[in-house]
Amino acid sequence: MNDRFLRACRLEPVDATPVWFMRQAGRYMPEYRALRARYSLLDICANPELAVAVTLQPVDVINVDAAILFSDLLVPFAPMGLDFDFVKGEGPSVQNPIRSPADVDRLRTFEPRQALGHVLETIRILHRELADRVPLIGFGGAPFTMAAYAIEGGPSANYARTKAFMYSEPAAWHRLCGRFAATIAEYLRAQIEAGVQAVQIFDSWAGSLGRADYQEFALPHTSSIVSALKDVGVPVIHFGVGTAAILCDIAGTGADVIGLDWREPIDEAWARIGQDRAIQGNLDPTSLLGPRDRMFAAADDILRRAAGRRGHIFNLGHGVLPDTPLEQVQALADHVHGFRL
Ligand code: CP3
Q1: Where are the domains of the chain?
Q2: Ligand 1 pocket, mutate which of 22, 23, 41 (most atoms under 8 A from CB)
Q3: CATH, domain 4-338, list 1.10.10.10, 3.20.20.210, 3.40.50.2300, 3.30.930.10
Q4: What is the pLDDT of residues 116-131, one digit of tens each?
Q5: Pocket test for ligand 1, best of 22, 28, 29, 73 (most atoms within 8 A of CB)
Q6: Where does the chain have alpha helices with state H?
Q7: CB 72 less than 6 A from any atom of ligand 1
Q8: What global pTM score does this model have?
Q9: How many angstroms is it from 91 CA to the middle of ligand 1?
């Protein structure tokens, strides 16, 4: 087993910088598009055989040091009673979004080992298939980002509804986030039992919050997920975008690895959060759309600033964009592995 990724999560020395890509399985891959022509995104997530195949597509053709379970952040919505689908070209759409405290109280609790058994089955198969290859990362949404989707009902430019709810109904907001925290913590524990070797908590939209609001409305709930996972001994990665202003607060959640977007140089971010944490990031996903030498120069700048410190996991600051040429992703992974200071 290639364990560079797990070693970096644990701040141990590595033979080369580990690299994987958020959304490494997706529309930029011809193999993925071929499957999507026949099945919807939710069909793929619900069918272990298809989800295993998609998870393995990038592992087979790109030299990545980790696989990430193919599923979606919103999969736990359905067993909670939030009906949703993916609308072509627009993203997720929730039919019965949360708009009142009474809506919070109608959410159902569920046992992930039953309601999401198909996801756990996908993980068990992947654990066997990947045994001699690379570790498998599981994931779940942070309470703020899950609540934002549940309230907005889909993507949003400014999260106005979410923030209005948060400010006007703070008790119901904390009940909602408490519910997501308990649900996602249990779901991640079930993923770990089934065989994932690291978990990533996606707080994709936390960067929309000012620092005081992050501390009051988001941080306590994300921290409770991290605490609930401490005894299982699997690395926890925190991911967010636009989080420079709240990065130290995010480190306060106790996550082992802190995700960093492209807006702040990695050495400066690392100095602020402390060398006792690993960092994952921080190449701008659009740099893969430019000329190759410019992409390599941007990657080299990150690697030079990381300066061979323990705990650097190379990744993009957000997911691979659909227009990215596959050859750029392949070349980047090889380039990172070949880099020497
Ligand atoms: O990284 C991976 O390879 C694993 C798979 C994965 C998906 N979604 C599959 C997917 C992961 C880790 C996610 C997490 C997820 N889902 C997040 C957090 C990550 C982030 O980008 O910040 C969010 C916000 C979602 C919700 C979601 N799912 C949105 C907003 C969209 C539409 C946007 C888009 O890119 O079309 C999705 C759809 C989705 N989930 C796709 C994939 C591969 C799009 C592909 C398709 O339609 O076939």
Answers
A1: 4-338
A2: 23
A3: 3.20.20.210
A4: 999 999 999 999 999 9
A5: 73
A6: 4-9, 30-36, 41-46, 48-61, 77-80, 101-105, 112-115, 117-129, 143-152, 160-168, 170-194, 211-213, 219-229, 247-251, 266-273, 292-306, 326-338
A7: yes
A8: 0.97
A9: 8
